[in-house]
Structures are given as C-alpha cells and as structure tokens.
Amino acid sequence: MKRCTGCGVEKEGSEFPNYKRNKDGLAPRCRVCVKEYHASRYILNRDHILAINKIYRDNNPEKEHARHYTEKSIARRELYNKTNKELIKERRRVTYLREHGYLENRRAINRASGARNRDKRLIEYHKEGSLIRVRSIEGRKDWAKRNPKPRPAYIEPKQPKKT
Question: Which of 7, 8, 49, 137 sits at a 20 to 30 Å CA gap from 105?
Fold first, then answer.
C-alpha cells in the first residue's frame, strides 16, 4: 500500500506508474492523478503545446510521414478498404450529395438512396444525416426465420376472397 501525493488516498502499488528514481520504483502520484494533471496542463497550455508540435512536424517531415505510413498501418488500411468496399462507396456518395446540397433532410437522403437500393439494404442515418450503418434486408429476413415470432391468437390469417 502506498499513499498518493495527489489525492492522499492509500492505494495498491499496481495503481502507480513505474518511476526508477524512487526507492520503491513507483511514482509519487497514482495513475488517475497523473492523468488529471496532464489533462489540466494541456487545457491550460493548449496553444503553446500545439505550436511546439507544429514546429516539430515542420522540422521533421520524414518522421511524421513515417508515422502514418508504417507497414502495419498500410496493411490495416488496405484490409479495411477491401472488406468494406460497399460501405466506403455509399459514404462517398452520401458525402458528395451532402456537399453539393442535394441532401437537406432525412426524406431527401432516403430519396437519394433510390428504389434500386431500398430492396437490397437498409441505410440508417443520424438526425444530421450522417451515415450510421448499412444493414442488409436479407440479413434481417434470415434473422426473422431463425427467431420466429409467434402470432397472437386473436389475429386470424387473411383468407383469399371467393369470387
């Protein structure tokens, strides 16, 4: 057990970050206090921190470029693009329509998706018109088959009219 100098509460050693300079090898403040300290420091010095980061990026463009284009990040991006082609295409189309003033409200969004897509997928949007997800209607039908809902006894099935 160790007392945090930030909040004054005794906590387990696992709740403190490592700090080699101390005898016990633990920092004087717990992780929660350290996180609060850094958040408040950023809020107070935001403009200065952003200016320093911009200077560093301008002076070290190769490091900034390398950070975004590692083999791992490129492979992850390619995998995402390959597995979500339809979703990406739909997002680009909706973004284009929104930027060019075709989409003002939800009704316009539904009209823009067109009848050709209505039977294939269900497109859900936020109130502002941003895309939430695209779900297959066939998938919903499959779910309905796997989870049959019993019909209430008082509803009679419709009988064809006799002519």
Answer: 137
Token duo for residue 45: 């010095």
Beta strands in 1-160 (DSSP E): 2-3, 10-11, 121-125, 131-136
Q: Would you say residue 78 lies in a domain?
A: no
Question: For the whole prediction, is pTM greater than 0.70?
Answer: no
With a cut of 70, say whether residue 104 has pLDDT above it: no
Q: How far is CA 65 from CA 50, 52, 54, 77, in A?
A: 18, 18, 14, 15
User: ∠ CA(53), CA(54), CA(58), 5° rounding?
Assistant: 120
**Between residues 135 and 57, the one the model is more confident about:** 57
Buried b (16+ CB within 10 A) or exposed e, 146-155: eeeeeeeeee
Q: State pLDDT tens for residues 4-53.
A: 999 999 999 999 999 999 999 999 999 999 999 999 999 999 999 999 99
Measured CA angle at 138 (ends 132, 144), to 5 deg: 100
Domain that holds residue 126: 83-145
Both 49 and 103 in one domain: the answer is no
Cα dist. 95→36, 98, 109 in Å?
Answer: 37, 5, 11
